[in-house]
Amino acid sequence: MVEVKVDEEKCDGCGSCVDVCPVEVLEIVEEKSKVKNPDECLACRACEVQCPNTSIEIIE
Ligand code: SF4
Ligand code: SF4
Fold first, then answer.
1. 6, 53 contact by CB (below 8 A)
2. pLDDT score recorded for residue 48
3. pLDDT tens digits for 15-54?
4. CATH number at residue 34
């Protein structure tokens, strides 16, 4: 089970995490990244690496 955590305080809604995720786990809602499909996460950490504000944490 993988947990995808987004720190909304740090997220500026740039959308990079949404673009980089291969399985559409994330979406932008009201200029914040939201986790919509947590069960699909592959723990590839692409979103975590890509985020310019270190707002995402993948916990395995
Ligand atoms: S770790 Fe990979 S699969 Fe999971 S949300 Fe991030 S980019 Fe998507
Ligand atoms: S890449 Fe980071 S700052 Fe940009 S929308 Fe995703 S979580 Fe927010």
1. no
2. 98
3. 999 999 999 999 999 999 999 999 999 999 999 999 999 9
4. 3.30.70.20
Domain of residue 37, residue span: 3-59
CA distances, 19 to each of 1, 22, 38, 51 (Å): 23, 8, 16, 11
Mutation choice for ligand 2 from 14, 25, 58, CB with most ligand atoms inside 8 A:
14
Ligand nearest to the CA of 60: 1
Q: How many domains does the chain have?
A: 1
Q: How far is the CA of 52 from the centre of ligand 2 (A)?
A: 7
The answer to pTM > 0.85 is yes
